[in-house]
Model the fold of this input.
Amino acid sequence: MRVAAAVFKRGDSRSCIRKYEEVLRECEEKAVDLVVFPALTGEVCDFEEDFIEKIRDFSLRYKDIAINPGSYFENHDGKVYHSSFVMLNGEIKLFQRQLYLARWERELGLSRDTALKIADIKGYKISIILSTDVFYPQVSRYAALKGVNLVLSPVAIKGQRNFARQIAGVWQNVQQNLFFAIESGFKGEYKGNNFYSEAAIHAPLEMTKDDDGFLAKEVDSNIIIAELNEVERQKAISKFDVIKQLNINSYKGIFR
Amino acid sequence: MKNILEIVFESKMSEKKVNNYLRRLHGFSRGNFILKKKGKIRVACVEREIKVTNSFEEYAERMRKFVEEAALKGSDIVAFPEYNFFDLLGLIPGFGKLNNFLNKKAKSEEVSNSEGGGGEGLLKVIFKSISKAYQEAYEKIMRDFAKRYGIYIYTGSYIITENGNLYNGGTLISREGEILGRQKKIHLTDFEEKIGIKGDEELKVFSLDIGKIACPVCMDATYFETFRMAFEKGAEIVILPIANMEEYNFWRALRGIWPRVQESYVYGAKASLNGWIGGIHFTGKAAIFAPIDMTENEDGIIAIAPHYEGDYVVTSDLDIERLYEVREKAEYFKDVNEEFEKDYYEKVYENFRRVKDEK
Done:
């Protein structure tokens, strides 16, 4: 499967519709099967209508590309969630609300989802591990032990550019769970907070060219692309099978 | 009945030899201690090269010098690496020559024999044979050093035999030279599994006057569960002995304790073994880590050895009070999702085991 992460620069959110269009057109040209956009795009972008409907419009025009359009704040039953979804040919295939909240999200009074959803899309077992959830490793472990082999992560990491903080998120979750992950990061301001996060396509370290866990890293372009190869992933796992050596009996009472 | 190796190890590390060695040691002046700021504790992590020897006294003296250096730097606690006994495989008659041959061969072929080369059965015999004699002798000298230098010692790991099973574990010793407890490795490598080492099932946290400390072993830091349990039990500092049998690579080295420290908001102190033995190359930097918010360069590193090979004592001051302040203010830490976490063990781990068993 050919996958892509959208690369958003600071300020791109001011002309979002054009940026989405450019990204999706490039995905179509390059025969991309699935693309992930940064977190908070549904909030910071200049969509004039409902976020989901606008994405549906894109999805119907860019057929057969599974789109994870980033995230937005969803109002549901009097509560507000930080939410994301995957849409394919105008249909929502997977919907996920964030499970954990950052301090700034708690201060806004957001609510949490109760479960991680999994969907079969284009031959992969996929979960969305949304933004703050990348810093709670129990979410990634849950996904891995349920057989997820591809994680989509729209992220918005609070603060200035910080390589260490970025690595402490998706990268390390991939290395301790050995799934593929597509990360797309938001850069900019929202509600007085500054965010800086980058795009990357991750894989187990043993199968990456530079032994660094990256199939693709952010560059100055609209998208970064990688080819996911499940056979190669299985070979990498056979070299360093973290999951096999879990000592389950010792984890009783892990969340007291 | 004892095998020949057990007899060799017992004779070369006999109580008499250990006592004679300790009697010859001179006193230690505490006047050299470096003063620390109030409320801070100083941690020392040993990075050391394997130096194969056929003399227990020579080995003991090397260990003592590391303890002395840590004490002279004003450290409250010093930690040694995983498999801290490899040097003493030199006590096996003929091992020196065999070792030189295997190391030379591996270096010339640029291949580290990290799979054990099919000699798992032999290694199991060696590990079992050295276990009792080494543990008795090593713990005795380390208890003496702890008392002599007034410093807590985490011994690093070695083979512990219990009820006929082999474990890879280490011991925490008080400033008075008392054994406070042992922690055996919970997550094994494939190699350890092959040579018959068993995994522990409980992570302990030791409450000391310098902080609450957990001492898992090497591979345990690949698993967030280890540090989650340490945090749940109140750990403030996690000491980790490592012996990585692979060529050094920044990204591979990053897969262990560093991300665990970032997830669990504890201090992490890594002691590392390096060098060649039996054609296997060990590499790794000793280091002291903290949550990114607590480090000057915002990289989660407080102190790190300059190279992945050689001998170093890496020291740093830790501020436990500040750790709690940072935990309270952290952006991405300490949120609780009661519904998601409820029955997590059953719905995640037990379910995984059930599905695996059904296959």
